Amino acid sequence: MESLRCIVVDDEEGAHRVLDHYIKATSSLVLVGNFYNAVSAMDFMFKHPVDLLFLDINMPGISGLDMLEAMSNPPLVVLTTAYTQYALTGYKYRVVDYLVKPFEIAKFMAAVDNVFARFKPPVARHADIPPPQTSDISLILKVDTGIVRIMTNDITHIQSYGNYVKVFTKDKMYLSASTTSEIEQQLDKRHFKRIHRSYIVALSKIQSLEGAQVLLENGLILPVGKTYKREIWEYFTNKG
Predict the structure, then answer these.
(1) Which backbone phi and psi does 199 adopt, to 5 degrees?
(2) Would you state the torsion angle of the CA atoms of residues 160, 164, 169, 172, taken in this order, to the nearest 10 degrees?
(3) Residue 74: left if φ>0, alpha if ψ -120 to 50, beta else—which one?
């Protein structure tokens, strides 16, 4: 059997060091990513195959359980947390085992054994899975009502709004307790560019450049900051 591809999602550096050491000692597992928040981990899983997720629960922003709630088809999950009260809640998802920190390698290996007892190889091999198309890539946002998944192809622009960001699509605006920098990390830089400290735009939605402004297809005019003016002009000049 092929080694299982796993990732670690935890906001504590110490937890990563322990799990990295345990995983490297286990030839049946291969570590393909370390993430310190749910958003970056979910973004990775939308683009890459993952068989097993070692997941902390209490993390800033989106918690581990919120992350699982937002995923339609999560990989197998081993929860790793210092809190025992979430054990029963976790098993409503594809949670195979629950490791309470700190845990020794013997308990880790027992959890891995449970994982292999539950694991079913996919019908198609990972190498046969085509890369996601631009229209299939999504952005994960935490909003007042929970977590939403927005297809990036629908986004026109993103605006900084105090301690929040406004994400605009063709039909709706989403208000999220995040920063434009955090959102920018989730976006494909080939399709989105920052044009101002307060604005990120979808390049495909720009109709024209006029001095220090861009005109979007929907008629909205946005400012272009001095820091970003040269880059945005060079992009469109080279494209032409």
Answers:
(1) -135, 140
(2) -130
(3) beta
Q: Take residue 227 and report the two structure tokens written for it.
A: 């820091």
Please, are residues 137 and 189 in contact by the beta-carbon 8 Å criterion? no
Which of these, 6, 4, 10, lies nearest to 80 by C-alpha position? 10
HEC profile of the chain: CCCEEEEEECCCHHHHHHHHHHHHCCCCEEEEEEECCHHHHHHHHHHCCCCEEEECCCCCCCCHHHHHHHCCCCCEEEEEECCCCCHHHHCCCCEEEEEECCCCHHHHHHHHHHHHHHCCCCCCCHHHCCCCCHHHCEEEEEECCEEEEEEHHHEEEEEEECCEEEEEECCCEEEECCCHHHHHHHCCCCCEEEEECCEEEEHHHEEEEECCEEEECCCCEEECCHHHHHHHHHHHHHHC
- Reduce the secondary structure of 90-131 to three states and give it as a string: HCCCCEEEEEECCCCHHHHHHHHHHHHHHCCCCCCCHHHCCC
Partners of 90 in the β-ladder: none
Per-residue tens of pLDDT for the chain, all 240 residues? 578 999 999 999 999 999 999 999 999 999 999 999 998 898 888 888 999 999 998 888 888 888 888 887 889 999 998 876 655 555 566 688 889 899 999 999 999 998 998 887 654 444 444 444 444 577 778 888 777 888 889 999 999 998 889 999 988 999 988 888 888 877 888 889 999 999 999 999 999 888 889 999 999 999 999 888 888 888 777 765
The answer to whether the pTM exceeds 0.70 is no
